[in-house]
Automatic annotation (TrEMBL):
Protein name: NAD(+) diphosphatase
Alphabetical GO biological process terms: NAD+ catabolic process; NADP+ catabolic process
Principal EC category: hydrolase
Entry keyword set: Hydrolase, Magnesium, Metal-binding, NAD
One Gene Ontology term of the molecular function aspect: NADH pyrophosphatase activity
UniProt cofactor(s): Mg(2+)
UniProt EC number: 3.6.1.22
InterPro entries: NAD-cap_RNA_hydrolase_NudC, NADH_PPase-like_N, NudC-like_C, Nudix_hydrolase, NUDIX_hydrolase-like_dom_sf, NUDIX_hydrolase_CS, NUDIX_hydrolase_dom, Znr_NADH_PPase
Provenance organism: Senna tora
Length: 449
């Protein structure tokens, strides 16, 4: 049974700290997509798509400034923030706010050029516009209601997020201006993974959703039950009880995700769940339990779900995953290669629908580039329709088909998921360029495949 584990940044475990250190040293080889675009009219393309960073990573906003005396740093001070918001004589032109509704960020859409699909953008609005929208609903903006996201290195703007779920009039007003609140998963699929700016916007939206959902979960102190108040621009909270004053930090739930490999027969273990779209297979995954190392979690989860015994465990990379349930504001997916010591599969039907060994050739065929581009185009078109007020009951799962109209026998998650990169790194080992502490270990393991 999977069990979530609470990890507070104020006291990270040594294991997580070492993973973060390793992550900084690992660079994923950037794959040029231009050649692939020119071949889309040919037969379905299978390849390894390596990104500069995983989806939801690579956030271009920084939370702290190297100069504590500059404008951005002063704006994060709660009292300064309240003064700027309440003082109507001040023109806060350097504020941009991203509204959210029920975990969905505000977005807009612009038509693509030529055959390119529409492009979505974050729906930033000015602080004055936000105040006007709220006042039209009889609501006054207060400093505690917005959360600081950070600033860019190349501008003098403070970026914030706010939850307007309770303000129906605000939602209607924004909709009349061709803005819409879109599921983060839809934006994830709609994002062109070759567009660094779009990937950066996705990371910003993921970070903002995680913070806002955590704020909704941490309204009361878990120690004494009193209300909590935001501190440091909403990046932490503190109990309002003078005799308690417990500090509370944003929640992260660590999850191991692993590609189990059969070295001897050159196969990989893939699984499917009932909640997956048809024909999709992926890696095993599970939450870390208290008192358990990452390696132990990999071995335990693999054994519990498939009956496979794992020996060597090799770290690959990690990915923030802020698109889970509201009760888990952000999961941290920590990816591994796990090498099997036993091969007989005994599936736990409570956890998985099925699990099977697949040859390298089968896995390569499942990495069908055209399917991912079709899904991306479909999701981008859906965002455009939503922003125009035309919502169609469209099942994205049905659009995972190749350009010829023929369904691929199986496919794996798209480039927005760490599972894709674990699988493609194994399927196309010649395109892997791992460096850092694990390079020799990974290279040795891969050479034996």
């Amino acid at each position: 049974m999977l069990k979530p584990f609470l990890l507070l940044p104020s006291s990270p475990s040594s294991t997580i700290s070492s993973i973060i250190s390793i992550t900084k040293k690992i660079s994923l080889q950037t794959f040029s997509l231009a050649r692939a675009f020119s071949q889309l009219n040919a037969s379905p393309i299978t390849m390894s798509i390596n990104l500069q960073s995983h989806a939801f990573a690579g956030n271009p906003l920084r939370s702290k400034s190297p100069n504590p005396a500059d404008l951005i740093s002063s704006l994060r001070d709660p009292e300064t923030l309240k003064t700027r918001i309440l003082d109507n004589s001040t023109q806060p032109a350097n504020f941009k706010v991203l509204p959210f509704r029920n975990g969905r960020p505000l977005a807009s859409s612009t038509s693509g050029s030529g055959d390119s699909p529409p492009i979505w953008n974050l729906g930033w609005i000015s602080l004055d516009d936000l105040k006007g929208l709220l006042e039209s609903s009889g609501v006054q903006l207060i400093g505690d209601s917005i959360v600081y996201l950070g600033s860019r290195a190349d501008d003098d703007v403070a970026y914030w997020a706010i939850d307007v779920s309770a303000e129906r009039n605000v939602v209607a007003e924004l909709g009349s201006k061709e803005f819409c609140f879109v599921e983060l998963r839809t934006l994830m699929v709609a994002t062109d993974w070759a567009d660094l700016q779009a990937m950066g916007n996705l990371a910003i939206a993921g970070h903002a959703r995680a913070l806002l959902e955590w704020h909704n979960l941490s309204r009361f102190c878990g120690h004494c039950g009193e209300k909590t108040v935001p501190k440091d621009g909403g990046r932490r909270k503190q109990c309002s009880n003078e005799s308690c004053k417990k500090r509370i930090y944003p929640r992260v739930d660590p999850v191991v995700i692993m590609l189990v490999i059969d070295r001897e027969n050159d196969r990989a273990l893939l699984s499917k769940q009932s909640r997956f779209v048809p024909r999709m297979w992926s890696c095993l995954a599970g939450f870390i339990e208290p008192g358990e190392s990452l390696e132990e979690a990999v071995k335990r989860e693999t054994w519990e779900e498939t009956g496979i015994e794992v020996g060597e465990v090799v770290y690959h990379s990690s990915q923030p995953w802020p698109v889970g349930p509201n009760s888990m504001p952000c999961q941290l997916m920590i990816g591994f290669f796990a090498y099997a010591k036993s091969l007989e599969i005994n599936v736990d039907k409570k956890e998985l629908e099925d699990a099977q060994w697949h040859s390298r050739e089968e896995v390569r065929k499942a990495l069908t580039y055209t399917e991912y581009k079709k899904a991306q185009r479909t999701a981008a078109a859906k965002v455009e329709q939503l922003c125009k007020g035309v919502e169609k009951n469209q099942n994205l799962a049905a659009d995972y088909n190749v350009e010829s109209g023929e369904l691929a026998p199986m496919f794996v998650p798209g480039p927005f998921a760490i599972a894709h990169h674990l699988i493609s790194s194994w399927a196309f080992p010649d395109q892997v360029n791992g460096v850092g502490r694990n390079s020799k270990q990974l290279g040795g393991s891969m050479s034996n495949l």
